[in-house]
Amino acid sequence: MTPTAGNPRRRFLPSVPPTRAPFAALRFLRLRFRLLILLFFPSLYVLLLSATYSIDRNSFLIDFLPVLAFSSGLVLLLFLFLPSSFRVLPRPPTFPLLLSIRAFSFWNRTDRRTGLAVQPYSNGDVYEGELRWGKCYGSGVYYYHKSGKYEGDWIDAKYDGHGVETWTKGSKYKGQYKKGLRHGFGVYRYHTGDLYAGEWLNGQSHGYGVHTCENGSRYVGEFKWGLKHGLGYFRFRNGDTYAGEYFADKMHGFGVYHFADGQCYEGAWQEEKREGLGMLSFASGESQSGHWASGVLEISTSRNPFAGASFAVNHTRVLNSVQDARTAAQKAYDVRRVDDKVNKAVAAANIAADAAAAAGSKAVQIEKRDRGIEYVHDLPLEIV
């Protein structure tokens, strides 16, 4: 029986001639019946003897069980030591294993192709590159209709490995991917002119990185889910600098802010404003310290305040806050750089893009030469 494309699961089932099946079943039952007679013949003799001489029940069991055990052991010994030609139990019948090459054609139909191919989609998208079982797998180029393209590595129809995204508006990403998302190290140039280079996690900047804005400002530090978060150093376009803690893309916590005119604030911050205990130093050498609220000094410090006075803040507490700000700023200055790893990721992405472009070019040539037809699919990839 040869399997067909409509029934691929029966590719390797054995074939039994229908005319021999009843005789094989009868032979099997006859041999098993002989074995049962040989096994229970001594036990049947004891049973008939007990009925003839009216042996009591307890004596019957005592005599019957040893006889049953002895007969069973006798049959087992005969089975083990007799030659194979005299054994009672037959070998299971063997049937020829029929394979059909035609069965594999079901998995290699035109919509389940493997190798280099061109795969257009109904919405205008086109994929050129390697396929495995009809999915983008290996190196390839995916052209999004009137919006951009991706060049690089693929696994199971998703970006995975190294690749390059280019969009018609001007943005471009080079780096690593995992399961369709930017993941690892990479460089993203925004259409506005901004540039981010660093770590990525599940499609967002996450970890350590450098963000350079088109207007000249620059941030170096930690990111979390696309936002400045943790320790970082920011240089503003006007020359001001801040080093310290960030929370949800804003200066928040302890940090040191240097103004371009020579002023310096060291202390606590809350949502981009001086909030809490801190000290503002001027270029002339003078300073203001105390408790700040919304960027304005609310209560000044006093080095020798009266006991229980509420109109002044103890200077020692302000100095402690200043020290915390300096510690956070020092850690932000010393934050580890990722330039070397980013450069390696970009180099690998360029190699992947070249390989993908070559695969796409070969696929076009093969399709034109061998097939001359197009296979339009209705499920294009989603833009991430």
UniProtKB/TrEMBL annotation:
Keywords assigned: Membrane, Repeat, Transmembrane, Transmembrane helix
Ranges that cross the membrane: 35-55, 61-82
One cellular component term from this protein's GO annotations in UniProt:
membrane
Tell me if Membrane is a UniProt keyword of this record.
yes
SUPFAM superfamilies from the entry? Answer: Histone H3 K4-specific methyltransferase SET7/9 N-terminal domain (SSF82185)
InterPro entries named in the record: MORN (IPR003409)
Q: Does the keyword Membrane apply?
A: yes
Report the protein name in the record.
Uncharacterized protein
